[in-house]
Specification:
The longest helix is centred in the last third of the chain and has 19 residues. The protein has six helices and four strands.
C-alpha cells in the first residue's frame, strides 16, 4: 500500500488488511510505504490511529517507511492511493514485470482522497479503505 507520506491512507490500508488477513489465517505479507521521505520512522497520523481504533483496528505500532525499488522484489501487488504516487512508483520500476505489479488501490484507477489537510475526511477514507480491503481479499483468495 503506497501513499505520499505513509502516515494517513497507506497505514490505514496496511493495518486493516493485515488485521483481516490474520483473521482468516491467509499468511499474506502486508506492508505500506510512502513516496516521500519526510515521515520515515514516525507513527501514523494521530487521526488515522484514532479512526482505526474507533473501528477496532490498532495501527499505532506501525512506522512510516519509504517506497524503494526493492519493494518490487518483495511484493506481488503494489497498490497506490492516487495518480501522483502511481507515477512516482512506476518511475522506480526496472522492467515491465515490475510495472505490471502496480495498480490503484481503488478499482478503475480511482483515487483515495488524502485527508491530511481535512480532518473531517478521515472517517470517510477509513470506510472506503476498509471496504476495498474486504473486496481485495475476496478477489485474491
Amino acid at each position: 500500500m503506497v501513499c505520499l507520506g505513509n502516515i494517513c491512507r497507506s497505514p490505514l490500508a496496511e493495518g486493516i488488511m493485515r488485521h483481516l488477513v490474520n483473521e482468516q489465517n491467509l499468511g499474506w505479507e502486508i506492508a505500506s510505504a510512502g513516496t516521500g521521505d519526510w515521515h520515515i520512522g514516525r507513527a501514523p497520523d494521530y487521526r488515522s490511529i484514532e479512526v482505526a481504533k474507533n473501528y477496532g483496528y490498532d495501527i499505532s505500532a506501525q512506522r512510516a517507511k519509504l517506497f524503494t525499488s526493492e519493494c518490487f522484489d518483495e511484493f506481488d501487488h503494489i497498490l497506490v492511493m492516487d495518480k501522483n504516487n502511481y507515477k512516482t512508483v512506476l518511475k522506480l520500476a526496472k522492467n515491465e514485470e515490475q510495472k505490471n505489479k502496480v495498480q490503484f488501490f481503488l478499482a478503475d484507477n480511482g483515487e483515495v482522497i488524502d485527508p491530511y489537510h481535512h480532518s473531517h475526511l478521515f472517517e470517510y477514507v477509513f470506510n472506503e479503505v476498509e471496504a476495498r480491503c474486504k473486496k481485495l481479499i475476496k478477489e485474491w483468495k
